[in-house]
Design a protein that fits this description.
The structure holds two protein chains of two kinds. Chain A is α+β, with helices and mostly antiparallel strands. Helices cover 17% and strands 49% of the residues of chain A. Chain A has helices at residues 2-19, 77-84, 167-172, and strands at residues 26-39, 44-49, 53-57, 62-68, 73-74, 96-103, 115-127, 130-143, 146-156, 176-187. The relative contact order of chain A is 0.20. Chain B has a five-stranded mixed β-barrel. In chain B, strands 6-7 form a two-stranded antiparallel ribbon. Classes of the chains: A alpha+beta, B alpha+beta.
Amino acid sequence: MKKLSYLFFVSAAVIALAAFRPVAGKLVSRNAHISFFSHTSLEDITANNYKVVSTLETSTGDVVFSVPMQSFEFEKALMQEHYNSKDFLNTKAFPKAKFEGKISNISTVNFSQDGTYAVDVNGNMTIKETTKPVIAKGTVTIKEGKVNATTKFNLVLADYEVAFKKGKPSTNIAKEIEITVHADYLPE
Amino acid sequence: MTKKKLLKIGLIVFVVGLIAAVSLVMYMFNKPHQNVQDAAVDFTTSATDLVAEYLSEPEKANEKYLDEEGNSKIMAVTGKVNSITKDMNNQWVVLLKEEDDKAGVSCTFSAATNSSAEKLFVGQTVTIKGVIRSGAAYDEDLELYENVIIEKCDVLK
């Protein structure tokens, strides 16, 4: 009987430890949302993507986003076709975009305590064949063991050789677009 | 034919032409999105085979399945339900993946089809129809296998 109760206490302790284990190490997000917003006096354009995969290494601050480009959805079908086409994002040849970077002040984030932490992100964005540096401010929120990250930054389309020289796209699409990112992370 | 009559015919032709041109432009501009569930299935396969195809020859698979304007192939994929989760757009995401496979097929449902995903359970073998968006691959930066993505899904009867 004594043995049995000992076993019970040990297993209870193990379960309790596992349940209250602080989030640490590599976190993975398979539930994220990236949107982009383009504003001109003629038209506002938004596109949404819910199929982004991201990782966040809590010890080093390394952060990676992989973005399936054909998953961006526009309100208008024609716009979506233009966006995917060879002249613009050429998503058949380049089905994914990637951001690879670091949260430089990751040490200020206490992953075992609920709170909202302001973070600085810097890294490289690869769209089509072009890689350019990106610097952004973001927020990491820890709530009941769940980790959420958000950021907002601007991209200059011409930097990635996405140029609209003539016609409607050149007047209706902003030269600089706003990217918004939300990602929910779980331990791997 | 009098000059007046000729002018009248000319005017009618011009107006009809103009209406046709404006309607065509309006149609092009406002044309509906590809209706995935009404479209015919292009490829019938299993989650295991589709993943294997992408892992062995990704470029060939992209060439076969992806469309330049994003209206990529309509797939009917059979596999075992590994997980059922909800995305940030309140859409159900069903992962079809066999235990021994390195990656699976992630199937996103839509507001119109969410109810059929709710009837599924983990371990069940189903066939899901959807439009392919990207393939499976091992990503060295993520240090993870990425799943095949199909969207606008519904369970095939």
